[in-house]
Design a protein that fits this description.
Helix content: 25-40%
Number of strands: 19
Radius of gyration: 25 Å
Strand order of the largest sheet: 13-17-12-16-14-15
Structural class: alpha+beta
Mean pLDDT: 92
Strand content: 15-25%
Shape: globular
């Protein structure tokens, strides 16, 4: 009887749709409730844009917030957001933004003063923003304020009137518009923060200015967002709900996707790469990022450049990308990936593994550890929970043992703890990855400036690398116009960073390996930044 009722109900629904002239392929016409379920890889460190640094957090930022500049879903480049237009004067150093009429999800207006107060909060040393070093590299006077050498008046940003905001840069910086879409330049609800303090990110207090607003947040289980009916472009939003799941285990995420429990998963287990590589829902694309091992350069034995160089030469990157990751990644011997006008520093095709290993043995012996003799006990590779990170670490561990005679141990930590250990420089070797914040070589180099340049802060330079010549070249490039001369200056800086100092160990250049059926979901496009603003995603 129950089965008969279900069939009758289904027939009634079909007749009803036909009578109303609605197509089965048009979900919006049918008035269906559309939920999009995402594997977000980890529990977010925070929802406060001034307290975050990772990809899981960035995914949520794109749903909940919008800065002066937003993201183009097809290219990942910067497009108008809260600022509907801007003027560029003073040789490319002054930007005047004209704000559109926009409000927070509680109806409070967003003005130029909101932008000013938000940016000052992000730079205030009391906020302890882990990404404050980023705007320091752009805004004149920001580093002085963030470093405690001056007050907020030193920051060269200005409220002209309610709808006009101005900033002065340290140089012409041709990539600034793309960079401003980053959460380091977030606009935050100061009126709510002033009322609730750190509790402002709780669902009952939360307000946002993006296409979605926080609905529920059950830590370690799920976070959901729903459309923000106060968003200036609310008619563009077609999803009714997005559910973000903090799935750490790649196999769990894969199985849930294959079982129809996920609509988008950002990781594919290594042992499933061959099986899914020909499937239409598997999306593989170039990605502006570098996978590397970070070395704590102030701590023995890694304060010795010959040790760092030996470790860099003593394993086979080809084996990693062809037999472990299998996602089309490119072996990396430099920090900056190939990009237009700026080819990679070292061509992988020129590398000979046998010669590299022989050289590595010589360097390690010159450093005082012939055949690994005298190598310190307890040297560790830190990595965050991931089967891929584990397998890569196990392979490098084995290669260093066979080729150099040294032992290292592996330490796995969950996401938040892993991030904290790196920020506190509490590691020796750390699995790391850097995804460009904008498509320019500078984004892969400027975070490694020393405290003297960063006004006393190590910023994102977790390995505490230091070279005055490198710093001066990065600062020089910031004052130069776009073109070959600027790229040449950045190239010289990278030569020092990698070839002379071996500040870190590049392993491969990323590709994206994701699962999403674009025959079902529209508005999701592969792009080199791997930015997929959920504002544009819809069910076909």
């Amino acid at each position: 009887m129950k089965k008969v009722l279900i069939v009758l109900m289904a027939l009634l629904m079909v007749f009803s749709l036909a009578a109303n002239g609605k197509s089965d392929s048009d979900s919006s016409a049918k008035g269906e409730f559309t939920e999009f379920i995402v594997n977000n890889l980890a529990e977010p460190e925070s929802l406060d844009p001034h307290k975050i640094t990772g990809v899981p957090e960035h995914n949520l930022y794109q749903a909940l917030f919008e800065g002066l500049i937003s993201f183009d879903p097809k290219t990942g480049r910067g497009i108008p957001g809260i600022a509907e237009s801007w003027d560029i004067t003073n040789g490319g150093k002054t930007y005047t933004f004209h704000l559109r009429d926009a409000v927070w999800s509680d109806g409070v207006a967003i003005t130029a003063q909101t932008v000013y107060d938000s940016w000052i909060r992000g730079l205030d040393p009391e906020t302890a923003n882990p990404y404050a070093w980023f705007p320091n590299m752009f805004i004149a006077g920001a580093a002085e304020f963030n470093g405690g050498e001056a007050g907020p008046d030193a920051v060269q940003i200005k409220v002209i009137d309610d709808k006009t905001f101005e900033m002065d840069l340290v140089g012409p910086l041709p990539y600034v518009i793309d960079a401003l879409a980053h959460y380091a330049f977030a606009i935050v609800p100061m009126h709510v923060i002033n009322e609730f303090g750190s509790d402002w990110i709780k669902p009952e207090n939360f307000v946002s200015d993006g296409p979605f607003v926080l609905d529920t947040w059950v830590p370690q289980q799920e976070l959901t967002v729903v459309p923000n009916d106060k968003y200036w472009d609310k008619d563009a939003v077609q999803l009714d709900k997005i559910t973000y799941l903090p799935i750490v285990d790649d196999n769990t995420g894969f199985n849930m996707y294959m079982n129809g429990e996920l609509d988008w998963s950002e990781e594919v287990p290594l042992d499933q790469m061959d099986a899914v590589s020909s499937e239409p829902f598997y999306k593989n694309a170039p990605y502006l990022g570098t996978y590397y091992y970070l070395l704590e350069t102030q701590t023995p034995p890694f304060d010795n450049v010959k040790v760092r160089q030996a470790l860099n030469l003593a394993f086979d990157r080809e084996t990693i990308v062809k037999k472990i990751t299998k996602g089309g990644q490119i072996p990396a011997y430099s920090m900056v990936p190939p990009m237009d006008g700026y080819p990679s520093l070292i061509d992988p095709e020129t590398q000979d593994l046998a010669s590299n290993i022989a050289k590595a043995k010589e360097l390690l012996a010159e450093a005082g550890y012939p055949n690994g003799e005298g190598w310190p006990e307890g040297i560790e590779i830190l990595y965050n929970t991931s089967e891929a990170h584990k397998k890569i670490a196990e392979y490098i561990q084995e290669q260093w043992k066979v080729n150099l005679g040294i032992d290292v141990t592996l330490v796995n930590m969950e996401w938040k703890t892993y991030l904290q250990q790196r920020r506190e420089h509490n590691f020796q070797i750390s699995r790391s990855g850097w995804i460009g914040d904008y498509p320019d070589p500078n984004t892969f180099l400027d975070m490694f400036l020393a405290p003297e340049t960063m006004d006393g802060e190590w910023g994102g330079n977790y390995g505490r690398y230091k070279n005055e010549k490198f710093d001066s070249l990065i600062e020089k490039a910031a004052t130069m116009d776009a073109g070959a001369a600027r790229f040449s200056t950045l190239k010289e800086a990278e030569e020092i960073f990698i070839n002379k100092d071996q500040a870190l160990i590049p392993i491969y250049f990323y590709t994206t390996n994701q699962l999403i059926d674009t025959d079902v979901w529209g508005g999701w496009y592969p792009n080199i930044m791997d930015y997929h603003p959920p504002k544009y995603i819809y069910k076909k």
